[in-house]
Structures are given as C-alpha cells and as structure tokens.
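User: We ran a pulldown and think these components assemble together. Before we commit to crystallization trials, I'd like a predicted model of the whole complex to look at. Sequences follow.
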Amino acid sequence: MLDQIEGYTTEDGRKIGGVVMEMKNITLRFGGVVAIQDISFDVREGEIRAIIGPNGAGKSSMLNVISGFYNPQEGEVWYKGEKRPQMKPYQVAQQGIARTFQNIALFEGMSVLDNVMTGRIRQMKSGLFAQALWKGKAEREEVENRAFVERIIDFLEIQHIRKTPVGRLPYGLKKRVELARALAAEPSILLLDEPMAGMNVEEKEDMSRFVLDVNDEFGTTIVLIEHDMGVVMDLSDRVVVMDYGKKIGDGTPDEVRSNQAVIDAYLGVAHD
Amino acid sequence: MPDQLIFGMEVFLNGLMAGVLYALVALGFVLIYKASGIFNYAQGVMALFAALTLVGIMEGQVPFSHLINAIFGTEIHHFGWHVPALAAILLTMVVMVALAWAVNTLIFKHLVNQEPIILFMATIGLAYFLEGFGDMMWGSDIKTMDVGLPQGINDVIDETTAGWFGYGFFIDNLDIVATVIAAALVFTLIVFAQYTKQGRAMRAVADDHQAALSVGISLNFIWVMVWSLAGFVALVAGIMWGTKSGVQFSLSLIALKALPVLMLGGFTSIPGAIVGGLLIGVGEKLFEFAIGAPYLGGATEIWFAYVLALIFLVFRPQGLFGEKIIERV
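Assistant: Here's a predicted model for the assembly, 601 residues in total across the polymer chains.
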C-alpha cells in the first residue's frame, strides 16, 4: 500500500508528494439521476492521476465537481489541507485549479497569444489606471506575464500560430492552445477533460508527450479523464475507475488492470 | 467657389457633429452586446434616465416627491440647495452603477443562457420600466440642462470661414465639445479593452462563458462592469443631447437612430459604432441638402438612416467592422 502521508517515489524516479486534494464521499444527483455515488479518492502532489470509465460513468461530472461547475449534494472537497466551501467555478480557478474542456472552450475571436494571456489573469494584480497608463508595476507585470506565456507557447510548440485567431485552427491545435491557456495560470492542479478525444494516433502521441513533459518540467499535478484505457495506463501514476457513478477500482495501472470489476465493466459480463 | 459647395461643406460639418451623438449612443449598445450578447433596447432610456437624474441632483430636487406628497400630504419639492455640476455628474455615475448592479442582479443573472430574443424582450421591459421610474422619481416635465458646456456659434470658425469664402459657417460650440469628448471616450474605451486585465476579461466573457469561468473570471463582475460602462456612456450622451435639446422623453428615441448606426458599423465593433454614427450623421444631412429638400419634398432625415441600413443588410450583414459571420459546416 501507498504511504498515506509522505508520498512515494515512482518507478521512473519521480518524487510524489503528500495529498493535495481529497474528495470525500461525493454524491451528485441531477433530479432522480445519480451521476456520482459516494466516491472518495485523493490526489497527490506531482502525480498524474487518471479517472477512467466507460461512457456515462460520471467522469466528466467528477471533473466538474472538482472545478466547481457542479456542486455535489453530499460529500466534501479538501484542498491543500482545508475543507473547501461551496465555490463558483471562477473562484476555484483563482485558487489555482485550471482545466480544459472535452468540447474545447476557447476564445475563438482572439489570437492564440491573447487566449493564453487570459490564463494569466490570476497573476495580474496591478490597478486599472496603472495598467492603462502602462506604468511601473503594471509594466513589469505585463512583461513578466508575456515572458511566461511565450515560454509556454514555445514549450507546446505553437509559436507558428501565435497571432492566428483561434477560430481558424484545426481541432488538434485548439486542444493544445487550451492546454497552453490552462498552463499559463501556473496551476497547482491541472484538470484535463479527455485531452485525447477525437484525435488521431499521431495527435494522441503528441498530446501524451506534452502531458508527461508538463508534469516533468513544471511539476504540475495533473488529473485527467480518458475512456481510452491504453493511453491512460501509459501516462498515469494512479487510476480511479468509475462505472455507473460508482468507484470500482483505485490504484496503480497494474493493480487496476488486474481488478476483476474493472475488467467486467470494460469488457462486459454475463449476468445470470 | 460656388455657393452650393460652400453650403454643402457646412452641412457636412454639421452632419459630422450630429453623427458624434449617434455614435455615442451606439457605443453604449456595442459595449453591452459585445460582453453579454444582449441587445439593450433600453440604452436610449438609460441616457434619458441619466440626464433626468443629473438635472434632478443639480437642482436639489427631492426624488419621488410626487409620490411622497401624495402619501403623506406634504408639499415638498426641493431640498433648497444646488449641487455643482461636477459633483452632480459623479453622483449620477454612482446612481448609474447602482442601476447596473440592480439590472444584472434582478434581471439578467436569471436569464443566463436564454435565447437572444428573450434577453431582448427583457430589455424592452427594462426600457419601459426605467422610463416610468424616471418620471416617478424626477417628474415628467421638460427640463433644461446646463452643466457649463459652451454653447452657441463658434466665432473663430465663423470668422475664419467668412474670411475664406465670404460666408461664415455656423458650427455650435457644443458640437465641438461633444466631438472632443466622444473621441476621448472612445480612445479610453479602446485602451481599456485592449490593454487592461479587466478589458481582457471583458472580451473573454464576450467570447465564451465557460472558458472565462475556467480562467477565473467572475461573469457577474464583468456584466455589472459593462452595464456600468454603458451607464457612463449613456450619461455622456444624455448630457450632450440634454444640453442641446432639453431633457425630455424624445431623448430616449435617439436609441432607435442607433440601430442603423450599428448595422453600418457592426454590432461588435467600438470603432465601427463611431464610423457608423458619423456616416449616418453626414449621410442624412447631405442627402437632405442635396436631394431630399430640392427633389423629394424634404424630411428625408426621418427615413434615410434606416434605408441605408437596409441596403447594408443586403450586401454586408456584418457591418463595416463587425466580425465576419463564418459558419463551419
């Protein structure tokens, strides 16, 4: 079993820290439909944590609970050692939890650079007039933010489209721009909602590489959702498996792979 | 130089000045439309309301005096003081921010994700409510406004042009001031939208709500901010029109003139609102002067703007500066 407090070291030698976020007995209902039923799991600092499950398992709902888009009827979210009160999505974002969306939510009318810059809004603190007049602290701030954003843009290899309006980009690049915007916020937790959905094999490989590199380079804690088992198993340190709103497995990819309930959920099982 | 041409030039200049006022009202529309997708029919009434409030505060009128007197049998109308123009403008701005907050909290917060037509209907309701509310608060009599803006013919232009052409142009000082103020306002708004965090957040909200939330932008804050900005623009427009033609109900009708301005300029472009306003202002004055009055029996100013807008709708529906409407199939 994993050490509850100290964290652990992965096979490839990365140090995983203590628990940064903990979901306790989360239940989410929409009217009579139970989307999430009494699920608990934790996320450790620096790890890549995946939530997998077949379609309709409640994975996206879970991500929406973490990012404040949904408020669960029961259960608690603990973040950095404190119980989180009910929050609006923008407040969650201001706390340092950034996310991407399954269907991509970008500012289509703005350039790639502007899109990524909006990710820095959390870091911009100088007053309105100082900003407008481009004076002192505001100027320094803008320059710093610009530099950081350029670094992210380089890192995700989207320099060549910096000035292009996002609306004109193909799907795969949009996904990457969305990742860049989330990264620009220097999040303590990065939530990725099906980052590989709708991509071809090559794009999937690129995206996997970026996810790993981000984790490696920035030490970002990543929680990601996928229904493609193969991709997830290669990427993640620990995996939560959901089916019909319930948690049916939790552990390292190897543990999960050999879990009978998981195999049944994915391959189907004869009920007699 | 032939007389016709000299008169034409004067008409052109006057048209530009009138256009500035159209542009000011259109600007209020664009701000709200850009940030929330709401076509705010009440923008004109907001200008009226702002002007009423400004005059009321300046003259020390007791708000709701008719109502108070009717209920308590009193006879109060004035506090008996006068507030200096600048202080009154600041107080009016406070009222407009409060109005922005109330409009967002009581109405539009509850209509998020509704169809545009529903939002539009809500603004029609808001327009009539605000009209009645303004009457109730400040009375329905026509008021004159004097915040100390210069008025009357500009002597310098009159004498200079008289020296050049032997005919002095009649340009109102107020129109010149309005132009300068409008230019400053537009410049400020563009700097605000492009280079500040709040401006960036405003454009972000205009583009995609979900994405804006996910980077930590409070939608409600931005909406209140935008309605406050629109209230500020309404106040400026209200001051200009109020000073020019008195504070009266017809002020709210200029809102309708802003419609063709927006169709020309595009609903989402701040510079577009300005250029559209100027084009309509100049266009209708020149058309009246050159064609309307001599051949069509005059009064073409009433419909010229709308017909021009109609032509634009057919050939360039997104307006001169609007975002191109692309639908990916």
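The longest helix of chain B spans residues 3-36. That may be worth checking against your pulldown data before setting up trials.

User: Thanks, that helps.
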